[in-house]
Amino acid sequence: MFIFGHLGITLGLFKLLEHKIPVLKGRISYVGVTLGSMLPDLIDKPIGRVIFSETIDNGRIFAHTLLFFVFLCSVSFYLWKRKNDIRFMFLSAASFCHLIADNMWETPATLFWPLMGWHFPSNPGTYGGALDYFQILFTYAYTPSLDYVFISEVTGFMVLLFLNIRYLRQKYLLYVISGTVKL
């Protein structure tokens, strides 16, 4: 679960899309994007690493599959047709971005589950428990090196920092323009 990489890169991508495609301006549900960017991990990590740690021991299971993405798209399409609500589409799209960020094509048995079999790849004995799992996770993600995980975490952090600075600067300028803040 690499929080900064998933959140920052996905939010940055949707902000860029909103900037480049004017029809999206003000229509993107950033709550849906934020939730969708982490949804596969929020579902799979507790199930695969905690609840079924003795049998599955894998944090990339059901919600890291194309089947789950198709399910989200089906719900999105239904809500759009029935209620003219497109917000769930952004959750679906952000969830797909999560699959891309996790390089799920490298694990086709999970990505195409159940087409390639009913079992998920497992790696039993890798972690001694939840505390060991998080310790290894943070060590792996935040130890400076030129690997994919560290670079995506730093990139995501920088995007989040940029978006927050931009937001605060716009908010400050609105206060200055409205005369609320005196210089």
Beta-strand percentage range? under 5%
What overall form do the CA principal axes indicate?
globular
Taking pLDDT < 50 over at least 5 consecutive residues as the criterion, the unreliable ranges are none
Tally of DSSP helical segments: 7
Please, what is the oligomeric state?
Answer: single chain
SSE pattern, N- to C-terminal = HHHHHHH
Largest sheet: none
Helix content: 55-70%
- The end-to-end span amounts to 44 Å
Total number of beta strands: 0
Class derived from helix and strand content = mainly alpha
Mean pLDDT, as a whole number?
Answer: 85
Work out the radius of gyration: 19 Å
Give the domain tally.
Answer: 1
Task: Give me a quick take on this structure.
With 183 residues, the protein is mainly alpha-helical.
Features:
mainly alpha, 66% helix, 7 helices, 183 residues, single chain
Give a verbal description of the structure.
There is one protein chain. The mean pLDDT is 85. The chain has helices at residues 3-20, 30-51, 66-83, 87-101, 108-111, 130-142, 148-178. The chain is an all-alpha fold.
Write the layout of secondary structure elements.
Blueprint: H1 3-20, H2 30-51, H3 66-83, H4 87-101, H5 108-111, H6 130-142, H7 148-178
